[in-house]
Automatic annotation (TrEMBL):
SUPFAM superfamilies on file: Winged helix' DNA-binding domain
Keyword Transcription regulation: yes
Gene3D superfamilies: Winged helix-like DNA-binding domain superfamily/Winged helix DNA-binding domain (1.10.10.10)
Lineage: Bacteria, Pseudomonadati, Pseudomonadota, Gammaproteobacteria, Chromatiales
Keywords: DNA-binding, Transcription, Transcription regulation
Record keyword Transmembrane helix present: no
A Pfam family this chain is assigned to: MarR
Annotated protein name in UniProt: MarR family transcriptional regulator
Ranges of residues in domain HTH marR-type: 6-138
Superkingdom of the organism of origin: Bacteria
């Protein structure tokens, strides 16, 4: 059986992700943001004061990727890293006021991307599409954890 990219979930999801990222980048660039820092901001807008390890776990990214992302965010004045008062070995990540001020316009831009991308689907199809994506993600995460490929074992 010949491999067909047009029937490959991985290829199609990757292509979809690149299209989403391109549209999002165009909308958040005027805010001084990038698609590289946006996922971390989304998690921190839900609640900051996290450790780097907590961010890595929530975003399912590699340590070097997060280290680089946080360095850029600190350079750009989006976060500060403070020592944990209870454990001097731990540094907690806090949003700056400028990052907090970007939450509404940045998440509105992301909502516009999602609305535009999914406008050809009925409300039922949208719900099913998102549910299936979540199911596949959970399956891949469970498989990675079971095989030790999640970087946590």
């Amino acid at each position: 059986m010949r491999f067909s990219k047009d029937d490959s979930a991985g290829f199609l999801v990757n292509h979809l992700a690149r299209l989403f990222a391109r549209d999002l980048q165009a909308r958040i660039k005027p805010l001084g943001l990038s698609t590289g820092t946006f996922p971390a901001l989304l998690v921190l807008w839900e609640g900051d004061g996290l450790t780097q390890r907590e961010l890595i776990d929530r975003l399912d990214v590699e340590q070097p990727t997060m280290t680089h992302t946080l360095a850029r965010m600190e350079r750009d004045g989006l976060i500060r890293r403070d020592q944990d008062p209870a454990d001097g070995r731990v540094r907690r990540i806090w949003l700056t006021e400028s990052a907090r001020a970007l939450e509404a316009p940045a998440t509105a831009a992301a909502a516009q991307v999602n609305t535009s991308a999914l406008e050809q689907l009925s409300p039922e199809e949208r719900a099913a599409f998102l549910a299936l994506i979540r199911k596949v993600i959970l399956g891949l995460q469970a498989e990675a954890a079971a095989s030790g490929r999640d970087g946590k074992t």
